[in-house]
Every structure is written in structure tokens, then in C-alpha cells.
Design goal:
Layout: E1 15-23, E2 27-34, E3 40-47, H1 48-53, H2 57-69, E4 78-83, E5 87-93, E6 98-99, H3 100-107, H4 112-131, E7 134-135, E8 144-146, E9 152-154, E10 161-162, H5 179-182, H6 190-205, H7 215-224, H8 237-246, H9 257-262, H10 264-269
The protein binds the ligand CC(=O)NC[C@@H]1CCN(c2c(Cl)cnc3[nH]c(-c4cn(C)nc4C)nc23)C1.
Ligand FH3 is lined by residues 21-22, 24, 29, 42, 44, 92, 94-95, 98-99, 143, 145, 155-156.
């Protein structure tokens, strides 16, 4: 039985539980090994009474349906799930490299090649998700993991929606919210394009573009598109051009995912294998 076969009825006795890896939105995540195959996974444990208390059934079910259906090298796999009396267990792909966030904090900011490689990977993953009518809406460094080769993996679809229609619900921290979400207006796929602009800026400068002391000030800066580029680190004009063409208030005027992949800065700097050699 490989971990990939979905027919198998898994249970907690099929796994040796290892160290805690951190906490996701609804519960904790542990390193775990499937006893027979010795396959390493991340096991996300969610307490049913937490889900009931916050009435997050539909959201959790949606996260599971979405993540199970997605197959992309830059999207963390959900292999399957099982439950017991009080807990739900998600059997997730284990990303050996950990959270991209930690690498960003450690390095301060990334090189243009590394940043372009991650943005290209994210763009390809989002293009794939949008083809499957999935808007992630919560792409931020904490939800980005790295595999053993340094390849980016989007995790945590807790806030994503399967939708054709426009969406209205608030979510995520403010720094990454597009104007139409900040204004709680109907929004569509283009929110993810905006977020790519925010992330590209943060990868290159080490902080998001509209960071401010208070949420109110961040709101204001987003609504005004109050974008400025520090003089250090020295960032190429092409990188600034891409960021400027994504952080556009009118969502219909943002650079499309396909146009991002053709942008000179991406073409010149992104590593085609999604792994930026050190
Ligand atoms: C996106 C998200 O759900 N973040 C919260 C959970 C924290 C650990 N989660 C992991 C998930 Cl869901 C999958 N793989 C992981 N690998 C790691 C990790 C590896 N190292 C060396 N350090 C860490 C940490 N963590 C995970 C996800």
C-alpha cells in the first residue's frame, strides 16, 4: 500500500508520530512516518470540538476537497485523511525545507534569481489553481513551504474557495490584502495577482510594501497604492516594473499570470526547474 492510494482506510495506528512541526490554522502538525512503507508525512491533527465550536465544517471540508484534487509540483499534496472520536487527521506531504518565511527572515531579503524563481513557481501554481476554479486568497510567506530541493510548496488552503462567482469574505492578515478585499468588495481571481506583487516586493526588500504601525495605516497605504522602493537593497528596474504592474488598484489592469511568466525579469532570472542553485 503506497501512501498515494486513496482507497486504504488509514488510522492512527498506521503512523509513528514524531516531533511537532508547528501549528496550522485549525490544529497542530506533526512529523509522522507510515509504519509499513516508512513514508514520511506531515500529519495535521484537528480537534472536532474546535471545528464544531467555530462551525468550520464547510471550510475544512472545502480545504480537504480542494487540496486532495490539486496535483502540482508547487502545491503541497493532501494524500488522504481519517478521523477518530475527537480528532480529524490530514495526511499531508512533508516539506523537508520548512517554511519559506524562516529562510526570508534568516537572509533578510532574497537574491533576484531566488525571488524570481519563487514568483515563477507561485505563478505556475496559481495558474493551475485558477484553471481548477480555486482562488487561494491567503498566499503569504507563512503558507509557503520548501521541499528538500528548495522547491516552493503552497500549503494551507484553509481560506481558499472553489468558485466561479465573486467572493465576499474577509480573510488573512492585512499586508497581503488587495484593495477590493480591504474594501470588502466582491473580488475574483485577480486578488492572487496582487498578492504576487506584495510577495515579490517582500522577497526583494525583506518587508511587505504597505507595512505600517497600525492596521488602519496599512489599510490607507493599500487603498492609496502608497508604493515606494527603498534605495537599498539595490533592486533592478525590471523587478520594480513587475511589482508596479501587479500592485494596481483596478484588478482588471493587473498583469495576468501568463504575462508574469513572460515578463523580462522572470524570463531572465527565474530558474526553470524552480530550484535556484545557491
Ligand atoms: C502552511 C502551514 O500549514 N504551516 C503550519 C504548519 C507548520 C508545519 N507544517 C508543515 C507541513 Cl503542513 C508540511 N511539511 C512541513 N515541513 C515543515 C518543517 C520542516 N522543517 C525542517 N521545519 C518545519 C516547520 N513544516 C511543515 C505546516
Amino acid at each position: 500500500q503506497s501512501i498515494e492510494t486513496s482507497k486504504k482506510k488509514w488510522s492512527i495506528s498506521d503512523f509513528d508520530i514524531g516531533k511537532p512541526l508547528g501549528k496550522g490554522k485549525f490544529g497542530r502538525v506533526y512529523l509522522a512516518r507510515e509504519t509499513k512503507s516508512k513514508y514520511i508525512v506531515a500529519l495535521k491533527v484537528i480537534f472536532k470540538e474546535q471545528i464544531e465550536k467555530y462551525r468550520l465544517h464547510h471550510q475544512l471540508r472545502r480545504e480537504m476537497e480542494i487540496q486532495t484534487s490539486l496535483r502540482h509540483p508547487n502545491v503541497l499534496r493532501l494524500y488522504g485523511w481519517f478521523h477518530d472520536a475527537e480528532r480529524i487527521f490530514l495526511i499531508l506531504e512533508y516539506a523537508h525545507g520548512g517554511e519559506l518565511y524562516r529562510q526570508l527572515r534568516k537572509l533578510g531579503h532574497l537574491s533576484e534569481r531566488q525571488a524570481a524563481t519563487y514568483i515563477a513557481s507561485l505563478t505556475q501554481a496559481l495558474a493551475y489553481c485558477h484553471e481548477k476554479d480555486v482562488i487561494h486568497r491567503d498566499i503569504k510567506p507563512e503558507n509557503l513551504l520548501l521541499d528538500h530541493e528548495g522547491r516552493l510548496k503552497i500549503a494551507d488552503f484553509g481560506w481558499s474557495v472553489q468558485s466561479r462567482s465573486k467572493r465576499h469574505t474577509m480573510c488573512g492578515t492585512l499586508d497581503y490584502l488587495a484593495p477590493e478585499m480591504v474594501e470588502n468588495k466582491a473580488h475574483d481571481y485577480a486578488v492572487d495577482n496582487w498578492t504576487l506583487g506584495v510577495l515579490c516586493y517582500e522577497f526583494l526588500y525583506g518587508a511587505p510594501p504597505f507595512e505600517a504601525e497600525s492596521q488602519t495605516d496599512t489599510f490607507r497605504r493599500i487603498m492609496k497604492i502608497d508604493l515606494s522602493f527603498p534605495s537599498t537593497p539595490d533592486v533592478s528596474a525590471e523587478a520594480k516594473n513587475l511589482i508596479t504592474r501587479l500592485l494596481v488598484k483596478d484588478s482588471s489592469k493587473r498583469l495576468s499570470l501568463h504575462k508574469i511568466l513572460e515578463h523580462p525579469w522572470i524570463v531572465k532570472n527565474a530558474d526553470p526547474m524552480g530550484i535556484c542553485p545557491k
